[in-house]
Amino acid sequence: MAHPLPLRFTAFDGSASGPEDSPYRLHLATERGLTYLLTAPGDLGFGRAYVAGDLELHGVHPGDPYEALKLVQSHLSFRRPTPAEVARIVRSLGLSRLRPVAPPPQEAPSRLRRVVDGVRHSLGRDAEAIHYHYDVSNAFYEMVLGPSMAYTCAVFPTAETSLEDAQAEKFDLVARKLDLKPGQRLLDLGCGWGGMVRHAAREYGVHALGVTLSREQATWAQRAIKEEGLDHLAEVRHMDYRHVEETGFDAISSIGLTEHIGVKNYPAYFAFIEDRLKPQGRLLNHCITRHDNVYRPTGAFLDRYVFPDGELIGSGRIIADVQDAGLEVQHEENLRPHYALTLKHWCQNLVDNWDACVAEVGEGTARVWGLYMAGSRIGFERNDTQLHHVLATKTVDGVSDYPLRPTWRV
């Protein structure tokens, strides 16, 4: 059931509603913004108007609109208008307001229009989806993510832990769960800017290979590897994980890649991993999940502006497909609150570096990141989304080499 709007709403025609003393004000500044809202009800229309600057949110910084979004989502239930409501809108506003206008340039094509780029999760279409999100600007990501350049959930020993320390703890927790030792071989799938690869090489003396579909990430990572003097142990390649031919890895980490490969492709993905591991080798899969195992498409705003073709499902489905690929699941952990904290820090970084970020990528793109990160934080806080670690071994003839009790410390 919808409740009265908890913030002040004003529009270009002088109309207004909501409490005058609200600390937050939503201002519809243009007729184009109204058309966005009417022609794409829900989060897509809101996102279009906000990213274009036609819908202004006052009282919060655009790099972190968390407080206002949280207030609105606590009081409203968004739904599409009924046919009768649409008819009344048409009569009152006129048909001209219902003629779609071009969306902001930051918007990716719809799912149907992406068919021209190939079948969903084909090599070419996946490469384009990754390019869209991750090749925005390395300089922009450096400002938002911080020195770690880790674009995945950190692990906070305490709520007061810094983001950098929490990201280092994340990489080390993965390393401890994989029981990495000097001289071993690690494959990091979807390695991003090479944080796990460099951590494993530097701290554990592991020969680490990372692969990413983002050319910008690979270039940045290879430079960082060279600067740290890790060339003899670490390598990052710009390539699809499906093209990795080497086998016999002692460990494989997948940190934030599963969200991009498609739920229907899980069996093939985990079969690929099983084939690349040596007997008794370990897998650590780290990914965003839903709070249940019911499949539903990603919301329109996230699909068009953030992660084209991204898909989520619950940890139960992931565990089932890991097991069906022939791997033995040894441990599972939900780190949901940690991602809410991570997003809080990223938003603060965006706020602190707002002018430089806008100069680097434009205000529209910066608005996209602020809106999606603040909204995602709310999703993790409310248990709409979670973050799971699944640790598994390639058990052969009943031998897993997994100890009677875990040797890794929390």
Keywords:
four-stranded mixed sheet, 410 residues, alpha/beta, Rossmann fold, seven-stranded mixed sheet, 2 domains, 11 strands
Structural write-up:
The protein is of the alpha/beta class. The protein has two domains: 8-98, no CATH class; 127-393, Vaccinia Virus protein VP39 (Rossmann fold), CATH 3.40.50. The chain is built from 16 helices and eleven strands. The chain has helices at 31-39, 43-52, 66-75, 83-93, 123-134, 138-145, 163-177, 195-204, 215-227, 258-261, 266-276, 300-305, 315-324, 336-352, 354-361, 363-381; strands at residues 8-11, 16-17, 25-28, 55-58, 185-189, 207-212, 234-238, 249-255, 277-290, 328-334, 385-393. It has a seven-stranded mixed beta sheet, sandwiched between helices. Helix 8 links the parallel strand 5 and strand 6. The longest helix has 19 residues, at 363-381. The chain is elongated. It starts with 7 loop residues before the first strand and ends in a 17-residue tail after the last strand. 42% of the residues are buried.
The CATH class of the largest domain turns out to be Alpha Beta
Spatial extent as radius of gyration: 23 Å
Domains counted in the coordinates: how many? 2
Low-confidence stretches: none
Query: Average pLDDT, to the nearest integer?
Result: 90
Distance between the termini: 42 Å
Query: Per CATH, what is the topology of the largest domain?
Result: Rossmann fold
CATH superfamily of the largest domain: Vaccinia Virus protein VP39
**Which range does the strand content fall in?**
15-25%
> Which strand order does the major sheet show?
7-6-5-8-9-11-10
How many strands appear in the DSSP assignment? 11
